[in-house]
Structures are given as C-alpha cells and as structure tokens.
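User: Hello! My lab partner asked me to get a predicted holo structure for this protein. The small molecule is pyridoxal-5'-phosphate, SMILES included with the sequence. Please write out the structure tokens.
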Amino acid sequence: MRSGWYIMGKELENFETLFAAYLGVKYCVGLNSGLDALTLAVRALDIGTGDEVIVPANTYIASILGVTENGATPVLVEPDEYHGLDASKIEAVITPRTKAVLPVHLYGQSCDMKSICAIAEKHGLYVIEDCAQSHGATQNGQLTGTFGTIGCFSFYPTKPLGALGDSGAVVTNNPILADKLRKLRNYGSGVKYVNELEGVNSRLDEVQAALLQVGLKHLEEGNAYRKRIASRYLNEICNPRVQLPETRANCAHVYHIFAVLCPQRDALQQHLLDCGVKTQIHYPIPPHLQQCYARLGYGQGDFPISERYANEELSLPIYVGMPEEDVDQVIAAINSFEG
Ligand SMILES: *Cc1c(COP(=O)(O)O)cnc(C)c1O
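Assistant: Hello! Below are the structure tokens for the protein in complex with pyridoxal-5'-phosphate.
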C-alpha cells in the first residue's frame, strides 16, 4: 500500500508468474473475476454470434454466461456420474457451427479431459476449461487448467484459492492468446492510449495479487485439509438414503464442494438443520430452467440427469479449519436421518 501502486504493477506480475509456474503453463493473465475469465476466453478465441459452444447442463450459471455474453449459443450436454461433462455425449451435438467445448470441473473434480481433448482434437474444437472450483485437481497427475486451449480460474474468496475480494485469471500456453487477453483486460490496449481491440476493464489489482501470492503457498495444504474431512465423510457416513460422491479413477478431487445425493434432499436438509448442521445446495435450479435463459427454449424434462442432481444434491460443510468435533457432528446427524 505504501508503494502507491495499486493497479497493474509488480504484485500482479509476480502472482501471474507464480501461478503459471504452479500449473506448469507458460502464461497467466490476472483478471477481475472467474466470469470475466470465461467471457474473455471465449472472446479471445473469436467465438461470437452464430457460433456454438458445448457446455454442461449441470453447471453454475457463470460457465454459460461467459458464452452468451459473447452472443454465442450454449449447447447443453448432460453430466456423467462424477458430475463432469459426459464425454460420450459430446459428438452427438457437434455441428458445423461448434467452435469449442467448455468442460467444468465441478465440485473440484476433473472432468474426463483425456476423452474430451481427444474428441475436441478430432473435430478441430477449442477446449475452454472452467477451473473455478478445481485449483489443484488432477487427472492422471495433470492439473486442471493445463489440458485445454485456455483454463479459466476464479479466486472468489470461498474457492480453493481465494482472494479477499473478487478476482480471477486465465492460463494458456499460446503466446498470441495470452497477449490478446492482456490487451482485452485493459481496454484493448497494449500501449497506453493506443486501443487495438474493443476491450474491457478487468484487471486484478495489486492488493489482491499480493494476497493471492500468500494464498498460493497454502493451496496444497488447504486442499489436503478438505481431503481429510472428505475421507472421514466417505468412511464414516453410512446411511442407505444418502449417496456419497465418487472419484473417477486416476483423478485427485480437491473437494471444493462435498456433494451428496438424496431423493429426500429437502427432508435431509431440514433434519441436519435440526441437528445444528447448515448445508447448501449447488445448484437448486439448472441453467436451462432459469428465467434468464427462457429464450433458449429448453423446458422441464430436457436434461433429466441435471434436473435430478438439482433436486437431490446437498453440500455438506467442508472448509479449511473445520474442527474435528464438527465433522463428528455432521456424520452423526446424517447417519441418524430416517427419511
Ligand atoms: C465461482 C464460479 C464461477 C465464477 O467465478 P466468479 O469469480 O464468481 O465470477 C464460474 N464457474 C464456476 C463453476 C464457479 O464455481
């Protein structure tokens, strides 16, 4: 703060270098939010009106807003049993207008990137990864964000790597895209007052960039902390009414969200509340049934798996610093649910 340099300075450069090095990619461009990361990634790839992007039907709304913000059309695909974009359903929806696939590593588990990237390559599609919940998650030892053309991260405070406010970033190995994204975030300008592109103001400020450098040092430790809680839930919750989350073979889940499924979800949530356990739902209304996307013409029953997850999903408490006694309490409360 005493430096008097609050925007586009050393702290941002340092964070970008450190985060790119952590992931093992060439470039990181800090931005204002995860939504901006998605929006600008789509824009940097010149995807717009008349183009289609394949997205999961069970994601947070921001993944789809990044597409529609650019005038492109989201084409929704159902998730697999790990809540990731179902690779086996992608080819059926590819058209001559399809430009990209946008897998979302929902809840902190990698999608089947091996299969998704193979399909994308076969059809000449870009891959834009939504890693807003998956900092540190891997498939076959490879970190999410490093598989596709561009990886999009959010550093919203609750995310596995969080700032003390809004911020996000994109990562890529492509120098042309990195340069374009650097310009897009700063009014489309590389040289001050020379505007090559119609850009936006989406800069990650110095204070957040400095805090994120500290946060990055603790990312692995935080992921391990949540993983220990998740192991306890997986080992000790035994209620036939509650389906526990599964991890794909060769994937490391970072448990941003510990999502269970229960057909009597609302009763379970009330029971837990009566036992002093507050839970959340991620997410109660799937994007295709949101009012803002009525124009896309989807209706109830169009994506039954996503709709079932929206009706049955419950997120158990899981956070860095959560006391063991609280974990005990959650386990006992779930095991005592009788429907
Ligand atoms: C949080 C989140 C975003 C958006 O990130 P913001 O920084 O809040 O804009 C996008 N996609 C997913 C899956 C998220 O969880």
